[in-house]
Amino acid sequence: MPEIISRPIVTVTNVIWSYDFTTEEVVVLLAKKADEPFKGYWSLPETFLRSTEDADSAALRLISDKIGVQLDSFHTEQLATFSSVVRTKSDRQLALAYMSFLPKMPELTPGVGAVNVAWVPVKALQNNFYLVHPEFSIKLPNTTPNDFYQNLTVKSNQSQLAFDHELIIQTAITRVRNKLDYAPSILRILGNHFTLKNARKIYANFLGISESAIDNSNFRKTHDHLFFETGAVTTVGKGRPAKLYQLK
After folding, report:
1. Structural contact between residues 27 and 112, judged by C-beta atoms closer than 8 angstroms
2. pLDDT digit string (tens) for 106-126?
3. Are the CB atoms for 129 and 49 separated by under 8 Å?
4. Do 157 and 60 have their domain in common?
5. What is the CATH number of the domain that holds 201?
6. Torsion on CA atoms 194, 80, 121, 184, rounded to nearest 10
7. Does 155 score more than 60 pLDDT?
8. Where do the H-state alpha helices sit in the chain?
9. Where do the NrtR DNA-binding winged helix domain residues begin and end (predicted)?
10. Which of 17, 109, 181, 247 registers the highest number of CB atoms within 10 A of its CB?
11. 88 is in which domain, residue-wise?
12. pLDDT in tens, 51-79
Protein backbone atom coordinates (compact mmCIF):
# COMPACT_ATOMS: atom_id res chain seq x y z
CA MET A 1 0.00 0.00 0.00
CA PRO A 2 1.53 3.37 -0.98
CA GLU A 3 2.54 5.72 1.81
CA ILE A 4 0.13 8.59 2.43
CA ILE A 5 2.13 11.81 2.42
CA SER A 6 0.84 14.61 4.61
CA ARG A 7 2.09 18.04 3.63
CA PRO A 8 2.90 20.35 6.56
CA ILE A 9 1.67 23.92 6.76
CA VAL A 10 4.43 26.44 6.05
CA THR A 11 4.52 29.68 8.01
CA VAL A 12 6.87 32.65 7.99
CA THR A 13 7.71 33.81 11.52
CA ASN A 14 9.41 37.16 12.04
CA VAL A 15 11.60 38.33 14.91
CA ILE A 16 11.08 42.08 14.52
CA TRP A 17 13.72 44.06 16.40
CA SER A 18 13.50 47.76 17.22
CA TYR A 19 14.93 50.27 19.69
CA ASP A 20 13.12 52.33 22.30
CA PHE A 21 15.00 55.64 22.38
CA THR A 22 13.12 56.72 25.52
CA THR A 23 14.14 53.77 27.69
CA GLU A 24 17.25 53.00 25.58
CA GLU A 25 16.27 49.33 25.32
CA VAL A 26 16.29 46.75 22.55
CA VAL A 27 12.74 45.49 22.02
CA VAL A 28 11.02 42.72 20.06
CA LEU A 29 7.45 42.66 18.76
CA LEU A 30 5.02 40.15 20.31
CA ALA A 31 1.29 39.62 19.79
CA LYS A 32 -1.21 37.87 22.06
CA LYS A 33 -3.12 35.29 20.04
CA ALA A 34 -6.91 35.54 19.78
CA ASP A 35 -7.43 32.09 18.26
CA GLU A 36 -6.28 28.50 18.52
CA PRO A 37 -3.78 27.03 18.43
CA PHE A 38 -2.26 28.62 21.54
CA LYS A 39 -5.16 31.00 22.13
CA GLY A 40 -4.18 33.53 24.81
CA TYR A 41 -0.45 32.94 24.37
CA TRP A 42 2.00 35.62 23.31
CA SER A 43 3.81 34.89 20.07
CA LEU A 44 6.02 36.31 17.37
CA PRO A 45 4.21 37.74 14.32
CA GLU A 46 3.68 35.07 11.69
CA THR A 47 1.81 34.46 8.47
CA PHE A 48 1.07 31.56 6.15
CA LEU A 49 3.28 31.35 3.08
CA ARG A 50 1.13 32.00 0.02
CA SER A 51 1.46 29.98 -3.17
CA THR A 52 2.20 33.16 -5.14
CA GLU A 53 5.14 34.46 -3.07
CA ASP A 54 8.58 33.48 -1.86
CA ALA A 55 9.54 33.49 1.81
CA ASP A 56 11.50 36.76 1.61
CA SER A 57 8.45 38.54 0.19
CA ALA A 58 6.23 37.01 2.86
CA ALA A 59 8.53 38.29 5.62
CA LEU A 60 8.25 41.84 4.28
CA ARG A 61 4.48 41.50 3.71
CA LEU A 62 4.08 40.35 7.30
CA ILE A 63 5.58 43.61 8.57
CA SER A 64 3.36 45.64 6.26
CA ASP A 65 0.22 43.70 7.22
CA LYS A 66 0.82 43.70 10.97
CA ILE A 67 2.18 47.19 11.66
CA GLY A 68 1.80 49.08 8.38
CA VAL A 69 5.51 49.64 7.76
CA GLN A 70 7.14 49.20 4.35
CA LEU A 71 10.74 48.00 4.58
CA ASP A 72 13.45 47.49 1.98
CA SER A 73 14.80 43.96 1.63
CA PHE A 74 18.13 44.81 3.31
CA HIS A 75 16.22 45.33 6.58
CA THR A 76 15.39 41.62 6.83
CA GLU A 77 17.38 38.38 6.76
CA GLN A 78 16.56 34.69 6.99
CA LEU A 79 17.30 33.17 10.38
CA ALA A 80 16.59 29.42 10.31
CA THR A 81 13.97 26.78 9.59
CA PHE A 82 12.19 25.21 12.56
CA SER A 83 10.70 21.85 11.63
CA SER A 84 10.48 19.71 14.77
CA VAL A 85 7.48 17.39 14.72
CA VAL A 86 6.65 18.39 18.31
CA ARG A 87 6.62 22.18 17.82
CA THR A 88 2.85 22.08 17.24
CA LYS A 89 0.19 19.97 18.94
CA SER A 90 -2.23 19.73 16.00
CA ASP A 91 -1.50 20.04 12.28
CA ARG A 92 2.20 19.99 11.61
CA GLN A 93 3.73 23.38 10.81
CA LEU A 94 7.17 24.36 9.57
CA ALA A 95 8.37 27.85 10.45
CA LEU A 96 10.69 29.77 8.14
CA ALA A 97 12.07 32.28 10.63
CA TYR A 98 13.35 35.73 9.72
CA MET A 99 14.83 38.68 11.56
CA SER A 100 13.81 42.22 10.64
CA PHE A 101 15.35 45.47 11.83
CA LEU A 102 12.84 48.27 12.29
CA PRO A 103 14.43 51.74 12.47
CA LYS A 104 11.30 53.28 13.99
CA MET A 105 9.04 51.89 16.69
CA PRO A 106 5.49 52.70 15.52
CA GLU A 107 2.40 52.79 17.71
CA LEU A 108 0.75 49.37 17.78
CA THR A 109 -2.86 48.30 17.33
CA PRO A 110 -3.91 44.63 17.59
CA GLY A 111 -4.80 43.31 14.15
CA VAL A 112 -6.71 40.26 12.97
CA GLY A 113 -5.90 37.24 15.13
CA ALA A 114 -4.52 39.24 18.08
CA VAL A 115 -6.05 40.65 21.27
CA ASN A 116 -2.95 42.58 22.27
CA VAL A 117 0.39 43.56 20.80
CA ALA A 118 3.48 45.04 22.44
CA TRP A 119 7.11 46.01 22.09
CA VAL A 120 8.80 43.83 24.72
CA PRO A 121 12.28 44.64 26.09
CA VAL A 122 14.97 41.98 25.83
CA LYS A 123 17.21 42.04 28.90
CA ALA A 124 20.37 40.11 29.76
CA LEU A 125 21.19 38.87 33.26
CA GLN A 126 24.00 36.48 34.18
CA ASN A 127 24.36 34.93 30.70
CA ASN A 128 20.60 34.50 30.33
CA PHE A 129 18.12 36.57 28.35
CA TYR A 130 14.64 37.57 29.46
CA LEU A 131 11.53 39.03 27.87
CA VAL A 132 10.10 41.54 30.34
CA HIS A 133 6.50 42.75 30.13
CA PRO A 134 3.86 43.79 32.73
CA GLU A 135 2.07 40.46 32.10
CA PHE A 136 5.13 38.21 32.19
CA SER A 137 8.86 37.75 32.59
CA ILE A 138 10.13 34.90 30.43
CA LYS A 139 13.58 33.38 30.68
CA LEU A 140 14.65 32.30 27.21
CA PRO A 141 16.03 28.77 26.83
CA ASN A 142 19.77 28.49 27.37
CA THR A 143 19.88 25.00 25.90
CA THR A 144 20.21 23.10 22.64
CA PRO A 145 17.24 22.80 20.25
CA ASN A 146 17.16 19.03 20.85
CA ASP A 147 16.89 19.52 24.61
CA PHE A 148 14.27 22.24 24.16
CA TYR A 149 12.03 20.02 22.03
CA GLN A 150 12.64 17.02 24.27
CA ASN A 151 11.38 19.11 27.16
CA LEU A 152 8.22 19.95 25.18
CA THR A 153 7.35 16.26 24.90
CA VAL A 154 6.78 16.20 28.66
CA LYS A 155 3.08 17.02 29.05
CA SER A 156 3.56 19.36 32.02
CA ASN A 157 6.27 21.37 30.25
CA GLN A 158 4.62 23.92 27.98
CA SER A 159 6.64 26.79 26.60
CA GLN A 160 5.49 30.21 27.80
CA LEU A 161 5.22 31.60 24.28
CA ALA A 162 3.26 29.97 21.47
CA PHE A 163 4.84 27.11 19.54
CA ASP A 164 8.65 27.23 19.93
CA HIS A 165 8.93 31.00 19.74
CA GLU A 166 11.12 31.19 22.84
CA LEU A 167 13.68 29.07 21.00
CA ILE A 168 13.34 31.18 17.85
CA ILE A 169 14.03 34.40 19.79
CA GLN A 170 17.01 32.83 21.56
CA THR A 171 18.33 31.66 18.18
CA ALA A 172 17.95 35.22 16.87
CA ILE A 173 19.86 36.61 19.87
CA THR A 174 22.69 34.14 19.25
CA ARG A 175 22.81 35.11 15.58
CA VAL A 176 23.00 38.81 16.44
CA ARG A 177 25.76 38.21 19.01
CA ASN A 178 27.81 36.13 16.60
CA LYS A 179 27.65 38.86 13.93
CA LEU A 180 28.46 41.88 16.09
CA ASP A 181 32.11 42.01 15.04
CA TYR A 182 31.70 41.49 11.31
CA ALA A 183 28.11 42.28 10.20
CA PRO A 184 26.13 44.13 12.90
CA SER A 185 22.83 44.36 11.03
CA ILE A 186 21.13 44.92 14.39
CA LEU A 187 22.38 48.53 14.30
CA ARG A 188 19.79 49.18 11.58
CA ILE A 189 17.24 49.52 14.39
CA LEU A 190 18.91 52.87 15.17
CA GLY A 191 18.14 54.25 11.71
CA ASN A 192 20.51 55.32 8.96
CA HIS A 193 22.69 57.29 11.39
CA PHE A 194 23.52 56.59 15.01
CA THR A 195 25.71 57.70 17.89
CA LEU A 196 28.45 55.55 19.36
CA LYS A 197 26.61 55.69 22.68
CA ASN A 198 23.52 54.00 21.26
CA ALA A 199 25.63 51.49 19.33
CA ARG A 200 27.48 50.61 22.54
CA LYS A 201 24.16 50.16 24.36
CA ILE A 202 23.03 47.64 21.76
CA TYR A 203 26.34 45.77 21.87
CA ALA A 204 26.24 45.72 25.68
CA ASN A 205 22.67 44.40 25.65
CA PHE A 206 23.51 41.43 23.44
CA LEU A 207 26.85 40.74 25.11
CA GLY A 208 25.24 40.77 28.55
CA ILE A 209 27.54 43.47 29.95
CA SER A 210 27.13 47.08 31.07
CA GLU A 211 27.60 49.91 28.59
CA SER A 212 30.37 51.33 30.80
CA ALA A 213 32.37 48.14 30.22
CA ILE A 214 32.79 49.17 26.56
CA ASP A 215 35.32 51.98 26.23
CA ASN A 216 34.12 54.56 23.72
CA SER A 217 37.51 55.23 22.07
CA ASN A 218 38.47 51.57 21.79
CA PHE A 219 35.01 50.71 20.49
CA ARG A 220 35.39 53.25 17.69
CA LYS A 221 38.88 52.02 16.75
CA THR A 222 38.06 48.31 16.81
CA HIS A 223 34.89 48.75 14.78
CA ASP A 224 35.97 51.31 12.19
CA HIS A 225 35.79 48.57 9.53
CA LEU A 226 32.05 48.34 10.17
CA PHE A 227 30.87 51.96 10.33
CA PHE A 228 32.21 55.40 9.59
CA GLU A 229 31.80 58.96 10.83
CA THR A 230 29.33 60.91 8.67
CA GLY A 231 30.56 64.39 9.56
CA ALA A 232 27.19 65.31 11.09
CA VAL A 233 26.27 65.59 14.77
CA THR A 234 23.12 65.14 16.81
CA THR A 235 20.96 68.15 17.58
CA VAL A 236 18.77 66.38 20.14
CA GLY A 237 19.21 66.71 23.89
CA LYS A 238 21.46 68.79 26.09
CA GLY A 239 25.22 68.86 26.29
CA ARG A 240 27.88 68.51 23.63
CA PRO A 241 26.51 67.28 20.27
CA ALA A 242 27.50 63.67 19.54
CA LYS A 243 29.03 62.57 16.25
CA LEU A 244 26.89 60.45 13.95
CA TYR A 245 28.00 57.21 12.32
CA GLN A 246 26.70 55.01 9.53
CA LEU A 247 27.13 51.35 8.62
CA LYS A 248 29.48 50.69 5.71
Report:
1. no
2. 888 887 788 899 999 999 988
3. no
4. yes
5. 1.10.10.10
6. -20
7. no
8. 55-67, 145-152, 165-179, 196-207, 216-222
9. 188-247
10. 17
11. 9-179
12. 899 999 999 998 888 877 777 767 889 99
